[in-house]
Amino acid sequence: MAEASSEDVDSNANTPVSVPINYPGPRSDVRYPLNTQYCGECTLPLEYCEYGPDPERCREWLERTLPDLLNQMQASGSGDDKGGEKKRQTRGGKGMPKGKKKSEAQKIILNKQQRKGNKFVTIVQGLASNEVDIELARKFFAQKFSCGCSKSGDDELTIQGDVVSELIDLLPEKWNQINPELIEDKS
Ligand SMILES: [Zn+2]
């Protein structure tokens, strides 16, 4: 009983104090324990000599005093550079803009509107964006349907009469580049 309680006290005493750890942990390329070397010239840790008053003199001191350490630093320095380069490349790869998407062919929208009485007009949108010369198309429709055809928007023709069903067949016949599946009949 007494022994057990003394054990308890011991284990309590041995309980490690939990300390938040914010450093990334041991590095495979660093030999432990860390042994900070201070510069005999500028008195800063050697890693900080380059920020000191005279890095050139620090380097000379290091060459004179600790040539092995200098070689080691240079070796690990170049290693770090390689690692950095690799990281940058990876990041660049991820961030690379994807190839520009080929612009998709636009739909051709056919619609009809009732005008006075039971007269209709047919509205064709999207010809120009399917590489159709809108002015040639206007003339072609006027002749083909023997009716008025006018440009009613940037990429829109208005044909007198209801010619929607004719256009569905006619457009891909007349213009090879028009994909029949992209013709949308909204009438
Ligand atoms: Zn120094």
Task: Give a verbal description of the structure.
By secondary structure, the chain is an alpha+beta fold. The chain folds into 2 domains: 31-84, no CATH class; 108-185, 2-Layer Sandwich (Translation Initiation Factor Eif1). 40% of the residues lie in helices and 14% in strands. A 5-stranded mixed sheet has the order 3-4-2-1-5, with helices on one face. Strand 3 and strand 4 (156-160) form a beta hairpin. Helix 2 (55-65) crosses helix 3. It is rod-shaped, with a radius of gyration of 40 Å. Residues 1-7, 79-88, 90-96 and 98-102 have low confidence and may be disordered. Zinc ion (ZN) binds at residues 39, 41-42, 44, 49, 52, 58.
